Q: What sequence folds into this?
């Protein structure tokens, strides 16, 4: 079965650089969620989209922005990167009116 | 504030043992509770529970929900080294956006 696809899988950036993370949800899933997971921590919600509109926003820095496109894929844009942004970034998708979220393999971002 | 608490935080057992992982929650408008397994990569969906007293089972794993006492347990029988992972419990937060609030996770190590 098709799963959530994320790219890139690994990313190394310098401080103050910009990064773009991409997420392709499971076909026919219309909701996308972004989570950040620091070392030894549980995933923290960043932002979500339903039918290409932002549906909720968590503790996402103003330096980050995201959107969902007409083909339902989503991109998380991160600017002015800081050392503390180093983490695993997961994208998850779900079908309308269901709570089960399926997670992608994640993008490991390292900021040097 | 919505909250999920898991216990124990870590557990070391030997192959063949049975383990019980606990998850308690506080959420204003409860809809469901989800269990995930995370092995150094993306959380993998295990179960979604919505009704009290109805056991969900998949192989050696089973889970049950108690909506009166606000907790769930995840049982793993005849543990194997491949069960070593972090087990995450999550609930969709109050509101309709479906973002998940995770517990701290239980790190399970199964020794040969």
A:
């Amino acid at each position: 079965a098709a799963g959530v696809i994320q790219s890139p899988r690994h990313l190394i950036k310098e401080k103050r650089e910009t990064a773009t993370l991409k997420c392709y949800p499971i076909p026919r899933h219309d909701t996308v969620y972004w989570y950040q997971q620091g070392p030894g921590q549980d995933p923290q919600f960043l932002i979500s989209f339903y039918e290409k509109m932002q549906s909720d926003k968590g503790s996402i820095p103003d330096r980050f922005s995201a959107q969902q496109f007409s083909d339902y894929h989503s991109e998380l844009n991160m600017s002015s990167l800081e050392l503390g942004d180093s983490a695993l970034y997961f994208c998850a998708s779900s079908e309308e009116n269901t709570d089960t979220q399926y997670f992608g393999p994640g993008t490991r971002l390292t900021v040097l | 504030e919505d909250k999920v608490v898991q216990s124990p935080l870590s557990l070391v057992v030997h192959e063949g043992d049975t383990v019980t992982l606990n998850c308690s929650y506080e959420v204003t408008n409860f809809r469901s509770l989800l269990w995930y397994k995370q092995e150094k990569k993306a959380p993998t969906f295990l179960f979604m529970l919505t009704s009290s007293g109805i056991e969900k089972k998949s192989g050696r794993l089973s889970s049950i929900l108690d909506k009166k006492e606000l907790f769930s347990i995840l049982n793993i029988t005849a543990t194997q080294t491949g069960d070593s992972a972090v087990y995450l419990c999550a609930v969709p937060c109050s509101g309709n956006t479906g973002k998940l609030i995770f517990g701290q996770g239980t790190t399970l190590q199964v020794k040969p």
In short: Chain B touches chain A at residues 31-32, 34, 36, 41-45, 48, 88, 92, 95, 97-105 (CB under 8 Å). Chain B has a mean pLDDT of 94.
